[in-house]
Amino acid sequence: MAQTEPNLDHDISWFLLPSYWAKMVVALISFLCFANSYDGDFVFDDSEAIINNKDLRAETPLGDLWYHDFWGSKLSSNTSHKSYRPLTVLTFRINYLLAGGFYPVGFHVINIILHCTISVLMIDVFSILLGGLQFSNKGRRLNLAPKSSLLAALLFAVHPVHTECVAGIVGRADLLCALFFLLSFLGYCKAFRENKEGHTFSILWVLVSVILGAIAMLCKEQGITILGLNAVFDALVINKINLLELIQKLLHKDKLLEAINYNYYYSLNAWLLLCPWWLCFDWSMGCIPLIKSVSDWRIIALAALWFCLIGLICQALCSEDSHKRRILTLGLGFLIIPFLPASNLFFRVGFVIAERVIYLPSIGYCILFTYGFSLLSKQAKKKKILAVAVLGILLINVMRCTFRSSQWRSEEQLFRSALSVCPLNAKVHYNVGKNLADKGNQSAAIKYYREAVRLNPKYVHAMNNLGNILKERNELHEAEELLSLAVQIQPDFAAAWMNLGIVQNSLRRFEEAEQSYWTAIKHRKKYPDCYYNLGRLYADLNRHIDALNAWRNATVLKPEHSLAWNNMIILLDNTGNLAQAEAVGREALELIPNDHSLMFSLANVLGKSQKYKESEALFLKAIKANPNAASYHGNLAVLYHRWGNLDLAKKHYEVSLKLDPMAPGTKENYNLLRRKLEQLQKKGGA
Ligand SMILES: *[C@@H]1O[C@H](CO)[C@@H](O)[C@H](O)[C@H]1NC(C)=O
């Protein structure tokens, strides 16, 4: 006796495409949504996770990846974020190796392909989730739902909230996690596949599913939730357990109360799924003001969320219709379970809302949406209008996706787009300011940094950057105020201590400056720039030995610190230690052979030591590397002048004066030479 559950496809007015075509359509449309992100820059977190991540370079042994976090720091270190995603890092490393450098295109292409693959896979997943069960004396088998699964997969493929995962390269973690999560789920379903003999159970597929789940976990921690999901699937479809009794046993009422604090954030997450219009790369730092009293109208959102959720949960648990019960429970399961690690229920996480954590939960949303659509189709008379409306929603989403992924292509657009979504988020203003400053637009950056500090008066990084710019614009007093405040708030902020030192140095408060530099070095052991600045302070104070030691320290920590080398050579030269200056110069050029400023400094020293030939060669090499430096030509002219090669001296004085007519000393030297040449001519004529 065969008995078949109703299947969503009975009610739905929607296309029936052969499976092959359905997959092609989903692949194409998901590609269309995000294809334009392929040539985007590395933006936002990409610089920390990719460009500055030493785990991508060949020097780092592959084995180390297992002991490092997502950003390449040791997991055991205090500064580690403890996010463990070695397989994702491995794929970055392969991308880097194949491209032979930091070219973002390859990284983006892989992300786009991953999303397309996942979207196509969703057809199979939804077929299982939305399909009905068929009972016969041979056991149960799934009655797949190709029409509704196509709709749900399309909804998933075009959801704009996915832009962050696809267009942002670090979103790879979520994509890979989702991919293996789904493969694990499909493997689990396969383990309990029915064949002609009835119910079978394949331990091999369970094993495959567990391994795939573990891989998902090594791509992103969220992957662990596959265990919960498989358990729900197991309970519902395979063992038909009544969840209500189970939950009653597990949950105490006060535990629910505990969660209330975070509920507003949950409702915002839900809102992002329903209406992905406001998207932002960062939702933290004041973006969403806390609800402080019950009279806050936003309580409505919370109430609405629970009203809907409780409604759905009741239906899922108590409905007469077993098919409905199962679809709703699986929909809610996919919506809620992958979200649990981000919910703050079990452990505190560092963010309130992040679009990328909704990648997997959006599967649940697609299930519920499709189910709702099938219910409406069953009742409505105008099925065509309903189908057109859904098509309209899909189309709007496609457009939203392409627009949003174009914003993800450059940091400037990404950060600016956030200004209207999260005007209260200090981090948004900070990032817009930082982007402007990096591009050299300091005066525009000031405005944004000020706003960031105004919104978050304890934002030490904004203070440090603002202080730094003000320092360069010689607004020293305000710079000092900001930097002092920053180190007061965060006493181990080394960069702020160094900048404060530079300001105090400029204000001629040398003792305080020295103190600040040493404090900076105390908090950051390897700080070559700080040693460099310390050296300049000692040089100003005529403490030559200390200055040389400090610069030496800078070059020990950073052998290519050209400024420190140059300062050493010049100081030794000016104090008459020509032999030492020459030795340091040669040592420096050995380490950075293509640095023309070092060639120039050493050439000057050699000229003074009357090693004219070698000096000339170095001057010429420096000029070849940097032909438009007036001083290079001027000093070479002086060399020829002294050496007695007057024609070449004249030529280079003239080039130098052409490049910089005001260069000190050159004019006088040139006039001296001209008089000498005239006298020689008179003598020759006589
Ligand atoms: C240079 O580094 C050494 C070793 O770290 C340290 O003891 C010394 O004080 C430093 N000197 C200067 C002037 O930076």
From TrEMBL:
This protein's UniProt keywords: Endoplasmic reticulum, Membrane, Repeat, TPR repeat, Transferase, Transmembrane, Transmembrane helix
Membrane topology according to the record: Multi-pass membrane protein
Keyword DNA repair attached: no
GO terms of molecular function: dolichyl-phosphate-mannose-protein mannosyltransferase activity
Subcellular location: Endoplasmic reticulum; Membrane
InterPro entries named among the record's database cross-references: O-mannosyl-transferase_TMTC, TMTC_DUF1736, TPR-like_helical_dom_sf, TPR_rpt
Protein name: dolichyl-phosphate-mannose--protein mannosyltransferase
Organism: Lepidothrix coronata
Taxonomic path: Eukaryota, Metazoa, Chordata, Craniata, Vertebrata
